[in-house]
Amino acid sequence: MSRISRRTMLRGLGVAVGLPFLDAMAPGTVLNAAQAAGTTAGEAAAVAPTRMGFFFIPNGVNIPYWTPTKEGFDFDLTPTLEPLKQVKNDCMVLSGLTLDNARAKGDGPGDHARSAAAFLTGAHPYKTSGANIKLGISVDQVAANMLGSQTRLPSLELGLDKTQTAGNCDSGYSCAYVSNISWRSDTTPVPKEVDPASLFDRLFGAGNDKAAAETRAKRAMYRKSILDFVADDAKRLDRQLGKVDQQKMDEFETSIREIEKRISMMQKQEREQKPPDMARPEGIPGDMTDHMRLMCDLLVLAWQMDITRISTVMVARDGSDRHYRWLNITEGHHTCSHHGGNAQKIEAIRKIDRYHMEQFAYFIQKLKSTREGNGTMLDHSMIMLGSGISDGDRHNHDELPIVLAGKGGGFIKPGRHIRFPRNTPLCNLYLSMLETMGVKQERFGDSNGRLSTLML
Length: 456
Prior knowledge:
This protein is of the alpha/beta class. It has 15 helices and 15 strands.
């Protein structure tokens, strides 16, 4: 078996396809600082790169259905967390964390804007609905600034709702705060990619808009898959690989073709759909589950191909009143979150919360089922899911619903419910995650230390 570089790509007619982590690449793997510090030279050959991801869910959750009663390894999966059953030992539930700068601090109403804005920045947004927005850099972009040069894209921001940057979206707060969780600087939010087709082209394009457009035109003319354009290069590579790597490549190529078919079907349905007698709804039309899972599958590919190692997924803007009619819920999410003790609305929120966890579990299971290096993609990743609001009815920002999945390259010990002292900053988690990625920071946001109990 020949040794090949981690940067090897399949190329042909304006298409560049990155490869998954193969055994043939292992001797040349570049470790991040944290891995290098704790890995022997003999172990290095089997180490894949560590990734960091964040999933944001809006409007908080119904805490009684969320929080486990037991702590430690023998914790119970509550009704909301039950979809994580197959990956329980790969996840941690973290209770007691607080997002202090999402609190009003004299600024009055606007908890949804502050929730999204502070979620990854740990900063208090300047209250304005004009262009003079001011917040702070987000944790994903801190990591991207340090590690982004190692991959084609420093970071990848995904979502299901289109980004808004102007206007008043929550009690005098700019739409930029409500619609974005990733911030490149205190005045620059990073817009989300919400269109699976555009994301696919971005991942498999040739690196510039003109070349990508030409490639799409050629594909449309010949009705070819991305893989058809790189077939000759793929055959050449296949002759250099062992049987295990050949199987990995076969599974990888099958995933790409399957995603192409789903995107094509989605576009066909959108073209054939009759215009409704109403304004076009925000975001991509169609089934939310299909949309969410397609974006998750594309994110898995992006990580496999090492296009990026740092990603965010915003399920919806905070304050979203999206309807979940397929769950037999007649009112919008935000409306139901203000349940005021109404049993019907509480049940609706329970269903929505569980639905969100089902989609997250789909992504985590996808990572766990993909072999990589000396384990799985999930072993080499850490993915945090949470909200900047705890109880949607109370709009409180303490006791946040937080799940951390993955082993972070072997530095995190999952399978536990950990309760931290009241008002422990959420930014302490971010400081620990940055350290696991090899990014040394003394402080981030309102952090006052690291969560040492994540590691055993």
